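User: Hello, can you help with two protein structures?

Assistant: Certainly.
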Amino acid sequence: MPRARVVRVDPIRPSEEVLEEAAGVLRSGGLVAFPTETVYGLGADAFNSEAVLKVFRVKRRPLDNPLIVHVSSLDMLHQVAVDVPDWVVRALSNAWPGPLTVVLKRRADLPAVVSGGLGTVAVRCPAHPVALKLIEALGRPVAAPSANLAGRPSPTRAEHVVEDLGDEIDLIIDAGETFFGVESTVVDLVSPRPQILRPGPVGPEELEKVFGFQFYLTPLTRGFSTYIETPPSPGMKYRHYAPSKKLVLVEKGSCGFSSYLDFLIDLLRSYSAESPALLATRETIDEIGMKLGADIAYIALGSRENLFEVAKNLYSSLRSLDKLDKISIAFSESIEEKGLGLAIMNRLRKASSERLVCK
């Protein structure tokens, strides 16, 4: 396949001509990478089984890892889901478009491959003009996981898609950097006990306001394990978001912050022969840099006072790590698990090959 065509569009007022071209690619069974407000997605016509299988093949994604189906309206939700309760429709009317995915019962005519063979389907309505207008131009739901090789950090810029899939897909719509930088929140609305399957930009507090009840958080939700026999949602069973180089997540545990900084410094000194890298907030880098100097490769995630900035920079920072010469290992600071910090730590735990806890 020739290298994908990359077309730049205005993120707010995308070219109708480009969107019609992209919709035509999808109608013909092709694959289109496009921006959402979270990350770039790799789209296929959700009702074209061969196109959906192509998504799995191109991403090197296991077939039991479900895809999220993207719709452009509440009405389109009913094309892929059945027995949707009225209270769910009312809640989604306030939450959509937005970075919230719900797991519901799958319509029988939606190809089972989309959902990893399960009787459920994960659905969301994205809040990005390009994504919405592309789905509207197609007139059908679009199945779209993140547009990266399976296991790699998700793409927040078109160039990340080119790096991973540029020789494998048909068209890439470039609308600049995505807004949130981490994938949507996924909630299970089918099980007797509603739970958060994957944390994201919509936190537990916001979910309670939207639905009127609390959602259950499991250790799996927080990223402590990668194993589940039949995952109903992406991001649950396999290692995800990982750089090629070894990443060690250093968790704060019961340490005070001063002790935690000393723990990080001792680790970096002990690996000085390997020229380690440190992924951390700017404040932590400033404090550690005063003691260790420039012998460490520092990658700033953002300010610990602005977790939206940290989330937005997370995947590009993990990709930057792989481009550092003479670096074989990196250590990452942990983030307080409140609000968006829950999603950030989920991603860091799944991206890391090892975890150390300060005690």
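That covers the first. Now for the second protein you mentioned:
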Amino acid sequence: MIILAIESSCDDTGAALIEEGRRPLSNIVSSQDEVHKRYGGVVPELASRRHLENIVPVIRGALEEAHTSLDDVDAVGVTRGPGLVGSLLVGIMAAKSIAYAKDIPLVGVNHLMGHLLAIFLEQEVPFPLVGMVASGGHTALYLVEGFTTFRFLGGTRDDAAGEAFDKVAKYLGLGYPGGMVIEKMARLGDPRAISFPRAYIAKDSLDFSFSGIKTAVVNYVRSHPPSDDGMADIAASFQEAAVDVLVNKIIWAAQRYGVDRVVVSGGVASNGRLRERLEQEGEEFGIKAYFPSPHLCRDNAAMIGVAGYHLLKAGRRDGLDMSAISRWPLGKE
């Protein structure tokens, strides 16, 4: 089975051809970072308009890279939600058009499911496992018992981890996207220089909160205007505080549910310090940590193709009346 997968949940336009749910024949992503850079975050209207410009060239690019045509496609998978409705609708309408014209199955995919299954594009990980999605819009933990079986364990009560990185970077004047610039700056600083708060909420909670640390950084900078060296210490200390919470929570979740495998995905999973800390502490507790390659951590269509393949195998089909879902919890059904 060859699936054409389409992703347009936020600001990246993606298309991919996936064979048998695991082999990417192509995976094209058109980034909008330059469009939103001046604003320090994604502007939904601008994102939607750029998707309209990009969607056809990106799909054509994916077909060309795979040396195939729409006549060879067996099904279409597309991100249905969660995400920005305007952005989602661009991808959904393109997917519907192709499915109708070629009379092939259509399936809508939960974006979070795609992130959790991205690891299977590169390696097999036995079930059950604890999965974490950490990105600009989401920070959540799941018990993953199979390709289509997810149990929600905890999520953010306010800002997502990636959102906190973006907002801190914007306040410090470091640029956008915040995750990359803060990680780069943090390499020059001392992560123990400033004791920013770690929000654990409650001893037994697997929920997250990152708004407090963002406010703590703002208050610190107001009372301690930093030099160039001081800026690096702020970045390193902020990053360490955020990583502490992410690492501890996923280790706690694995221990609580008796699982010795964890998978971290989403844009924040590209962070080198997070990878280093989780691998080290996971080894200490007998827990193996898995991460997709950085290009599969960001939003991409290949991961949607994996999820779509397993939904189709499970008998899922969607009609041409399918619409976007801006808020679509995974594992709470």
